[in-house]
Known about the structure:
Layout: E1 8-15, E2 19-23, E3 36-39, E4 42-49, E5 53-57, H1 60-65, E6 76-81, E7 100-110, E8 113-119, E9 133-136, E10 139-146, E11 150-155, H2 157-162, E12 173-178, H3 180-199
Antiparallel strand pairs: 1-2, 1-6, 2-5, 3-4, 3-6, 4-5, 7-8, 7-12, 8-11, 9-10, 9-12, 10-11
Amino acid sequence: MFTGIVEEQGILQCCEETSLRISAGNILQGVTEKDSVAVDGICLTVTEIGADWFRVDTMPETIRRTRLVSLQPGDRLNLERSLLASGRMGGHMVQGHIEACTSVLATKKDGIGRDVIIALPPHLRPYVIPKGFIALNGVSLTVVDVWHDRFSVSLIPYTREHTNLGQAVEGMLLNVETDIVGRYVARFFETTYIHQSQQQPTTA
C-alpha cells in the first residue's frame, strides 16, 4: 500500500517492450528486488537494481490501463516506496491499481495554486466526489469540483515543484486511482440493492 506522498521524481532511462529502467536516488535506500514501488501511481515490482537505477516489469494490462505508452526516455516519473507499518499516513490509502488513463482539459492559476481540470471517464463518475480523495500519477489530492464529465484539483506550489504534475498542460495524460473506501461503499450498496430487489416477491 502507498500514501500518495511522492518521495522523488525519477527519470525514465529506457522503455522496453516488457520493462522500464528508471534512474533514482533516495527511494533506492532499503529497496531490494521483489519490493513494490509506485511509478506514476502504478504498483510495480522491482526486478533489478543498480547503483542509481532500478528496473520494473510491465504487463500488457499495465500498458492498456496507464499512460506508460505515451512516455519517452527523459520523462519524469513520480516515485514512492510502499508504506511501512510504522510510517505516517500523510496522504490517503493508495493501492497503486490504476483504473483509467485520462487527459488534462485545462489549467488556470488561482492565487498560489493552479487548478487542473481533468476528463472524468464514465465508469469512474460514481466514485469521484467534491472534497474526496483521488490519486493522479500517484499523487494524493483532494477533488475540488465535479461535473458530469470532468473534475478539478488544485496544485499547491510544493506539489508542482516536487511531482510531475507541475508539468500538467492541456492534453497531458494522467493515471487515475479513485478512493478505495468509496469504491467499496458504492459496491456494497449496489450489490445489496440488487440482492434485495431479486428477493422481492412478485405479485400476480
